[in-house]
């Protein structure tokens, strides 16, 4: 699938409701916490395995951005580009990762929004992210995950959209995933 | 205390510069007056202010200015300051102010060229020198504004060369960028990124034509791209644009570096006759250009394989992928880069897709390539604060640069000619302050004002 394939459904507005048991809801929450933890612990190989083959990671450049096809994005990455980013930050000559970026993701306010047209579960959460590399940076925003259930009762990420409160800000480099 | 011309001149040697040019706040302040107070500086593209009242705020050196479209279609550039109390009349960003500017503090209003329109309760100013025609009651316009093929530049100095003369040989890069559109027009599209670098503005200009850093600084990203390509068995566009930095030294040595007056220049790959037909996107683009210009001219346009162009003081247009990295000095150790992407009017959509992808992957804050640049710029900034030495070397291929009718050309693509050329311009500006009053110290018409 091409990076700018317009047929990829980036909408996070549900087309149908979803009812989850308390146990299933807990499973979703645990999945989101685990995803955040893998990033904080820089366990990138495990993090990459959380995604579907054609899953997309998106951090829009604009508030209410309709899609990543007509406008620039802070991140718009498919499997290949997520892997390249991991390879780069793990390269021994990654001058800008000396010292490494450290992070603490705080994920909360998890709500089940409903289902998209393909039946993926849309989950909204709020993110507080503290990053440190020589100096501290605070990032925050609303995160939308579109998840698909796996045969073994777990989840995979079809889309992760991070709406940063300051997406239109001047930025220092964003080197690792938010 | 202002640094003497003698002291400033001594900072630039033929083969090196004194580190204080990067670290001394006093020199930075002088640069704002003597370089950014004189040179033509890119403020934005006409497509950013399409309708009457549309404005775009930006900075010329340390000056906040507004680019605005007036009712007669003309683009004006005025300082973002109300002449009453000094408040900035419009907030940072893009917007539309309607038929006139209105200050949010006391509702003084101004026409779109900045000239005074009105203010409330005028009778309170009776018996004073208040007069709508008195410039002291208007927003001040920047001394000169001109546009080259839609690219709007302004100069804070009433004297000096015209824009076309100032641009010299690099006007051809703007021409090439425009000619890549079958109708010869481009527009800013898709939004702009803004990235902060913790280093002096000159460091970035020098790096733009520094071919010796590519495979050293960017090892992490070109190796990552190559490893990934090997694993997936192909090298798509997204990886190809990260891979280029890994070319061996022999590749960079063959490139040609062109240097022009005023610090400008460009890096040219040897004319690439295959550029027009190498991939499906280029082939479609070539077909559209052939229809518009004929095959020979279309081949020329797409074969002009320039990498970074430098318009010293403004930034770096990239013709092949339709970007403009606008370089805004913030302080002696902070530089903000505004990254614009252009749509080539009438070109296939896939060409804009490629420009968008290039912006996202190479120039955005999340680029895998740029962080290593930004890191080494910061290390230069910090290293130059130590007592470990005073001079910064520009020795490579010194003495081999060749004069051309309109500038200079390197004999080797790893030459530090571009840096030497930039500092020649720097010295020229710094030793020759603007002759008229500087923008901050404009003499008021004292006679009109009542004595204290």
From TrEMBL, chain B:
Polar residues bias spans: 433-445
Transcription regulation in keyword set: no
The Rieske domain, residue ranges: 41-154
Keyword Lyase: no
One Pfam match: Ring_hydroxyl_A
GO molecular function, a single term: iron ion binding
Entry keywords, A to Z: 2Fe-2S, Iron, Iron-sulfur, Metal-binding, Oxidoreductase
Disordered: region residues: 433-452
Annotated family: Belongs to the bacterial ring-hydroxylating dioxygenase alpha subunit family.
PANTHER family recorded: 3-PHENYLPROPIONATE_CINNAMIC ACID DIOXYGENASE SUBUNIT ALPHA, CHOLINE MONOOXYGENASE, CHLOROPLASTIC
The protein's name: Ribosomal subunit interface protein
Origin species: Parazoarcus communis SWub3 = DSM 12120
Phylogenetic classification of the source organism: Bacteria, Pseudomonadati, Pseudomonadota, Betaproteobacteria, Rhodocyclales
């Amino acid at each position: 699938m091409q990076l700018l394939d317009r047929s990829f459904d980036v909408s996070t507005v549900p087309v149908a409701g979803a009812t989850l048991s308390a146990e299933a809801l807990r499973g979703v929450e645990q999945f989101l916490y685990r995803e955040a933890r893998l990033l904080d612990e820089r366990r990138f190989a495990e993090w990459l395995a959380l995604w579907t083959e054609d899953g997309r990671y998106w951090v829009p450049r604009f508030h209410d951005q309709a899609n990543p096809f007509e406008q620039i994005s802070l991140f718009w990455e498919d499997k290949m580009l997520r892997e390249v980013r991991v390879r780069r930050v793990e390269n021994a000559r990654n001058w800008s990762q000396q010292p490494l970026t450290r992070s603490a993701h705080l994920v909360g306010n998890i709500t089940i929004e409903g289902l998209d047209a393909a039946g993926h579960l849309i989950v909204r959460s709020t993110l507080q992210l503290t990053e440190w590399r020589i100096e501290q940076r605070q990032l925050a925003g609303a995160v939308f995950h579109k998840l698909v259930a796996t045969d073994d009762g777990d989840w995979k990420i079809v889309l992760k959209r991070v709406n940063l409160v300051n997406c239109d800000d001047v930025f220092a480099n964003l080197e690792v995933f938010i | 205390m202002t640094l003497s011309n003698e002291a400033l001149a001594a900072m630039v040697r033929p083969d090196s510069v004194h580190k204080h040019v990067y670290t001394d706040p006093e020199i930075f302040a002088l640069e704002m007056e003597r370089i950014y107070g004189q040179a033509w500086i890119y403020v934005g593209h006409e497509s950013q202010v399409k309708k009457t009242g549309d404005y775009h705020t930006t900075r010329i050196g340390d000056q906040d200015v507004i680019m605005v479209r007036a009712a007669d279609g003309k683009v004006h550039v005025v300082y973002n300051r109300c002449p009453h109390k000094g408040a900035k009349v419009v907030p940072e960003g893009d917007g539309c102010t309607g038929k006139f500017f209105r200050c949010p503090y006391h509702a003084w209003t101004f026409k779109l060229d900045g000239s005074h329109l009105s203010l409330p309760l005028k009778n309170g100013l009776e018996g004073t020198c208040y007069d709508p025609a008195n410039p002291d009651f208007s927003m001040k316009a920047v001394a000169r504004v001109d546009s080259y093929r839609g690219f709007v530049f302004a100069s804070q100095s009433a004297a000096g060369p015209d824009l076309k003369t100032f641009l010299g040989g690099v006007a051809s890069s703007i021409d090439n960028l425009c000619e890549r559109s079958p109708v010869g027009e481009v527009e800013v599209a898709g939004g702009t990124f803004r990235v902060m670098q913790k280093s002096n503005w000159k460091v970035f200009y020098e790096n733009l034509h520094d071919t010796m850093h590519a495979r050293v600084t960017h090892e992490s990203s070109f190796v990552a791209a190559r490893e990934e390509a090997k694993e997936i068995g192909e090298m798509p566009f997204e990886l190809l644009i990260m891979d280029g930095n890994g070319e061996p030294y022999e590749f960079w040595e063959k490139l040609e570096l062109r240097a022009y007056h005023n610090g400008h220049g460009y890096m040219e790959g040897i004319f690439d006759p295959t550029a027009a037909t190498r991939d499906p996107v280029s082939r479609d683009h070539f077909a559209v250009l052939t229809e518009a210009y004929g095959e020979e001219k279309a081949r020329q346009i797409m074969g002009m394989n320039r990498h970074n162009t430098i318009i010293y003081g403004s930034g770096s247009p990239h013709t092949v992928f339709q970007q403009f990295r606008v370089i805004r000095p913030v302080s002696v150790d902070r530089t903000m880069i505004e990254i614009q992407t252009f749509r080539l009017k009438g070109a296939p959509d896939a060409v804009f897709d490629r420009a968008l992808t290039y912006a996202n992957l190479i120039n955005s804050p999340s680029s895998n390539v740029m962080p290593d640049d930004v890191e080494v710029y910061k290390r230069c900034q910090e290293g130059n604060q130590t007592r470990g030495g005073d001079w910064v070397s520009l020795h490579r291929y010194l003495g081999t640069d060749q004069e051309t009718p309109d500038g200079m050309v390197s004999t080797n693509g790893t030459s530090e000619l571009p840096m030497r050329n930039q500092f020649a311009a720097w010295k020229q500006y710094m030793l020759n302050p603007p002759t008229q009053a500087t923008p901050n110290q404009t003499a008021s018409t004292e006679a009109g004002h009542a004595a204290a």
